[in-house]
């Protein structure tokens, strides 16, 4: 499930600086390592041009956009999603539903190239990825459109908060938060690359075989010892590198996969909650129900009622 960034309540009105298009209102927070922009749109428009200096991480907060980026098909851009826009890349944006009562709101962090390079160099020197032929780097355009992870969302919210503070050490704090943001972004891209397209990387990345094994054995016990053996490494090394690569532990990933499978199974008209619990790999019904409600905001039974097709 995509996670949305929530702006602090004290964010000022978004009408401090108008773009030349007179369509988007823009608030800017300029710091040493990056520029944070908040855009708000109050009326429908088509093909509004926008270009930011440096690479930009944009995140939808409210409403809907249709993004047109060079060399890519147009796509809907919704809350809980982010898009990485290349250095000085021209965006053309449609606002099909914007209005005063339901404005479109977007966050954009334009990052200086030196900040990106320093963070990537630091990671590759001191915290290398599992496969030496795949060093830390921002992924290409094919992985620019992302579903936000909770970790990425949390870091973005803290970046907004530190950008607005009057603390004397503001730029230092912002620099550390930006480094974390870049790490979270690369981990999010790594998840998208491997978790969704693992079959393409079975011969080049040991974690692809682990992802395949997990997906094929969700209903069975999945001890870390077994998964580390699939990856051909010790348990401690496997656990440490998996979390470094993807920003979550193997156990957290298994739980997320099992919850996703449970949601899929609950949509079947004849499946009971108890059956879904076992088929998704949970061996305790009470634990499954409590975990499902914590993560999804409603019980498995309520989810089933909402999502089971009418017969």
Automatic annotation (TrEMBL):
<dbReference type="InterPro" id="IPR018060">
    <property type="entry name" value="HTH_AraC"/>
</dbReference>
<dbReference type="InterPro" id="IPR020449">
    <property type="entry name" value="Tscrpt_reg_AraC-type_HTH"/>
</dbReference>
<dbReference type="InterPro" id="IPR018062">
    <property type="entry name" value="HTH_AraC-typ_CS"/>
</dbReference>
<dbReference type="InterPro" id="IPR009057">
    <property type="entry name" value="Homeodomain-like_sf"/>
</dbReference>
<dbReference type="Pfam" id="PF06719">
    <property type="entry name" value="AraC_N"/>
</dbReference>
<dbReference type="Pfam" id="PF12833">
    <property type="entry name" value="HTH_18"/>
</dbReference>
<keyword id="KW-0805">Transcription regulation</keyword>
<keyword id="KW-0804">Transcription</keyword>
<dbReference type="InterPro" id="IPR009594">
    <property type="entry name" value="Tscrpt_reg_HTH_AraC_N"/>
</dbReference>
<dbReference type="InterPro" id="IPR050204">
    <property type="entry name" value="AraC_XylS_family_regulators"/>
</dbReference>
<feature type="domain" description="HTH araC/xylS-type">
    <location>
        <begin position="208"/>
        <end position="306"/>
    </location>
</feature>
<protein>
    <submittedName>
        <fullName>Helix-turn-helix domain-containing protein</fullName>
    </submittedName>
</protein>
<keyword id="KW-0238">DNA-binding</keyword>
């Amino acid at each position: 499930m995509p996670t949305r960034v929530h702006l602090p309540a004290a964010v000022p009105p978004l009408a401090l600086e108008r773009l030349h298009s007179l369509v988007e209102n823009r608030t800017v927070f300029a710091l040493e390592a990056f520029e944070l922009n908040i855009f708000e749109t109050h009326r429908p428009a088509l093909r509004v041009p926008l270009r930011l200096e440096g690479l930009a991480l944009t995140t939808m907060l409210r409403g809907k956009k249709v993004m047109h980026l060079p060399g890519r098909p147009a796509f809907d851009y919704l809350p809980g999603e982010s898009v990485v826009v290349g250095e000085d890349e021209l965006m053309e944006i449609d606002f099909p539903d914007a209005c005063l009562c339901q404005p479109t709101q977007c966050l954009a962090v334009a990052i200086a190239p030196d900040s990106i390079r320093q963070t990537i160099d630091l990671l590759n020197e001191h915290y290398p990825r599992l496969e030496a032929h795949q060093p830390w780097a921002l992924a290409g355009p094919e992985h620019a459109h992302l579903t936000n992870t909770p970790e990425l969302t949390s870091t973005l919210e803290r970046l907004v908060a530190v950008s607005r503070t009057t603390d004397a050490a503001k730029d230092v704090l912002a620099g550390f938060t930006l480094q974390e943001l870049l790490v979270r972004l690369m981990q999010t891209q790594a998840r998208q690359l491997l978790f969704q397209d693992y079959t393409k990387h079975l011969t080049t990345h040991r974690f692809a075989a682990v992802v395949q094994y997990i997906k094929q054995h969700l209903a069975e016990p999945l001890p870390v010892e077994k998964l580390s053996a699939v990856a051909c490494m010790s348990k401690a090394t496997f656990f440490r590198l998996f979390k470094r690569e993807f920003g979550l532990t193997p156990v957290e990933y298994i739980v997320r996969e099992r919850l996703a499978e449970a949601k899929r199974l609950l949509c079947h008209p004849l499946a009971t909650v108890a059956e879904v619990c076992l088929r998704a790999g949970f061996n305790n019904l009470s634990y499954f129900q409590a975990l499902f409600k914590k993560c999804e905001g409603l019980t498995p039974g309520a989810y089933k009622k909402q999502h089971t097709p009418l017969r």
